[in-house]
Prior knowledge:
The chain is an alpha+beta fold. Helices cover about 25% and strands about 20% of the residues. The chain has helices at about 10-25, 70-80, 90-95, 105-110, 155-170, 175-185, 225-230, 235-245, 255-260, 325-340, 355-360, and strands at about 30-40, 40-50, 60-65, 205, 215, 230, 275, 280-285, 290-295, 300-305, 310-320, 365, 370-375, 380-385, 395-400, 405, 415-420, 425-430, 435. The strands form four sheets. It has an eight-stranded antiparallel β-sheet. It has a seven-stranded antiparallel β-sheet with strand order 2-1-11-10-9-8-7, sandwiched between helices. Strand 8 and strand 9 form a beta hairpin.
Amino acid sequence: MTDQYDELLPATRRALLHRIAVAQSEGRSPSLVAAVVRDGRLVWSDARSMIDGHAPTPDVQYRIGSLTKTFVAVLVLRLRDEGLLDLADRVGRHLPGTPADDATVAQLLAHAGGIAAETPGPWWERTDGSLRPTLDDLLEHERPQKHPAGRRHHYSNPGYALLGALVERLRGDTWGEVLRRELLEPLGMDRTTLLPEHPHAGGFAVHPWADVMMPEPLTDTGLMGPAGQLWSTAADLARWAAFLAGGNDAVLAPGTLAEMRRPAVGPESDDWAGSYGLGLQLLRHDGRVLYGHAGSMPGFTAGLWISEADGLAAIALANATSGANTPLVAADLIALTTRHEPRLPEPWRPLPAVDPELLALTGPWYWGAAAHALQLKADRMLELAPLAGGTRSSRFRAEPDGTWTGLDNYYAGETLRVVRAADGSVSHLDLGSFVLTREPYGPADAVPGGVDPQGWPAG
């Protein structure tokens, strides 16, 4: 990723600066730094500060709180992709003896294990990790399970502490060292650390009823670190956003990242505004679905969101415990950029070559009397869509054995195959046992249940 700051139009840059200026002023934050990433490259960054002439640069560290969880989730998914665990594994299989033994790895990643939201007191974010020296100290023992596992989303900071310990157990090293070796170094993120390194912002609490402030304590949270320990910069998080959007085969494949951003537990209302995947939050904002994460620790708030449809990501970091709503700021930066500079579609280009047999499959097909259209795309990809609309449109990836696998919506994972007659001609398409024919309910011998011998009335 090349760091460039001059690729957005002046009107766009002015709108983005105005948004963070309002957030810093009205949120009464000592400082606020933000960045926008477009198509994997940092294209804008700016900041506001209470000190004239001393606004932070994109290289100044802030504590990023629960954005840490996105890093831990990637480490866990790497273990899964390497075959060292299954997401359906019970935590106790790899990390026995905790109050969360019966929760699955996937449930902890999605905050669906039903375990407590926080550790037993005192408040872990403002106290030293030495107060919780063992995993046994992270969850209360009388009622660690607050909800049945897998039934609902219930955010759990101790759950991610357990995931960090799981990484340590399977890698044989501290989670921080595994993080540095497997994620930060390959992605060039040398300003993301467990403890602050100069230059870094100080964290403050701002009085709710007066314009005065005091410093927040700087703590090492120990075993709770995987829930929110990391410090990072706008520039490093731009690199992280670019990775989360596009993947990096040396770190995690794009297909696994796509799995992480799918909702893992159903929303609790039809008009949901937020959901959670495997380590990534999902947010509906300004007519688009974003994924990323919000974060907070005493003295700091952070927000990072990505819009897949727009090829955009945004980051906002502030150094006050409350006030500046940095997750909302980051989401607004995406909306503003899109409003001023909507993404241009890729130019249409013809396919360089076409297999005649595949071309012959395109056009109308019928499931019973329901009309569908089959289109041929690049790389032998097929798209099937009902002409009346609906939710059963799907893309199909070509497989080496001559079949296709559904990639999305109703037919995700299902197999599409061409069924030929005795003379080698195409009889019909079989899609997970659904038969699609060239005529409505015809030919009769291909249609399950047969067809009325009189066929369609002629008049």
